[in-house]
Amino acid sequence: xxxxxxxxTPHRTVWNSKAQEVILSxxxxxxxxxxxxxxxxxxxxxxxxxxLANNQWTAIALMGGFMIVDNNEMTILVNEAEKASxxxxxxxxxxxxxxxxxxxEANGRKNSIEANLALKRAKTRLEAxxxx
Length: 132
Known about the structure:
By secondary structure, this protein is of the alpha+beta class. It folds into two domains: 3-84, ATP Synthase, domain 1 (Sandwich); 85-131. The chain contains two helices and eight strands; from the N terminus they run ββββββββαα. The protein has helices at residues 89-105, 109-131; strands spanning 3-8, 13-19, 21-26, 29-33, 40-53, 56-70, 73-78, 81-83. Strands 1, 2, 3, 4, 5, 6, 7 and 8 form an eight-stranded mixed β-sheet that branches. Strand 6 and strand 7 (73-78) form a beta hairpin. Helix 1 (89-105) packs antiparallel against helix 2. The protein is globular, with a radius of gyration of 15 Å. It starts with a strand and ends with a helix.
């Protein structure tokens, strides 16, 4: 059994196909979605989404947003998303190291929060690439 999965950013559609299972991070923890899931609306955290389609797992780095599940349709609206296959591992590692340095050097509450978010985004991209 499958359900329709749509992953969209303001600029493009990242995924528009059937899925057998989805695992992703919500604001209240990790959740798995299977066909015939109960209706659900949730905020999404920055993290790696894993999609099982055609008996093969795919990782997608999600940068926060919302999801709605209803009637075997799952729609995900995010600020940014990137398939692991599209991530350059060297660039992701360099971005992670820069984000780590910026976080370590951040002064003040606002700068620390922004640096922490940038570090979390860079870490998510790196994790997505390493997992798949």
